[in-house]
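Loading example: each entry is read as two labelled lines plus one structure line.
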Amino acid sequence: ILNVEQSPQSLHVQEGDSTNFTCSFPSSNFYALHWYRWETAKSPEALFVMTLNGDEKKKGRISATLNTKEGYSYLYIKGSQPEDSATYLCAFSNNAGNMLTFGGGTRLMVKP
Amino acid sequence: KAGVTQTPRYLIKTRGQQVTLSCSPISGHRSVSWYQQTPGQGLQFLFEYFSETQRNKGNFPGRFSGRQFSNSRSEMNVSTLELGDSALYLCASSLSTIRTHGYTFGSGTRLTVV
C-alpha cells in the first residue's frame, strides 16, 4: 500500500500572504508526482506533473519543487488571493500505468 | 474543445440495486480512468481503460466493473449496491500517458445509496 501524506490538512491565510504545503511519498520506485487544484463545485485541475529529482515548476504565482530521494514535494503560493481558495491534491505514481495514489489534500482558505 | 462529460450528475439508488455511470472523454484521449471519492478515504483509483482494454485495476471488489467503447467512451457499473458505495465518482481522461500533462477530470457523478 502506497502512502501519500499531505500537510497541513487545512490552512487559513490572509490575502497577500505567501504559503506552502508539503506532500510526502515513498522514495523508492518513483515515476511521477502530480499536483491538482480542486475548487468547490468544480473538477480537479492539473497544476504540475513532475518527474525528475530537483524539478521546479511554476505557473503564475504557484510553484512546486520535487525531491525524489527523500520523498517530498512542496507547493508554494506567492501573494495568496481569494480565488486561490481550493483543495490542493498531490498524487504519486510508481509505474508507467495511468494510476495515481492521491494524498488527502490541503484545504486552503484565503480571506480577503 | 469539450471537456470530460459525466452523466448523470446525481443519482439515488437503493441497496441491492445496480447502477451504470457514463463518461465521455476529451476528443483524442484514449485513456479513461475512474476514481471514487469519499470523505474518509479521499480519491481512490478504481480502474483505467485504454483502447477498450482494462489496463490497470485498483483494490475494489468485483461488484465494480467497467468497459470502454471504440469511441473511447467509458461506463462503470456497480452491482448489488451497498450503503458504503455512496460517493462521488470521478472520471478522468488522458492521452496514452499522464506523465506529461496529467488528467483532465469530469465533474463527477454523486451517487447516494439509501
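The interface with chain A takes residues 3-4, 31, 33, 35, 42-45, 48, 50, 55-56, 58, 90, 94, 97-108 of chain B (CB under 8 Å).
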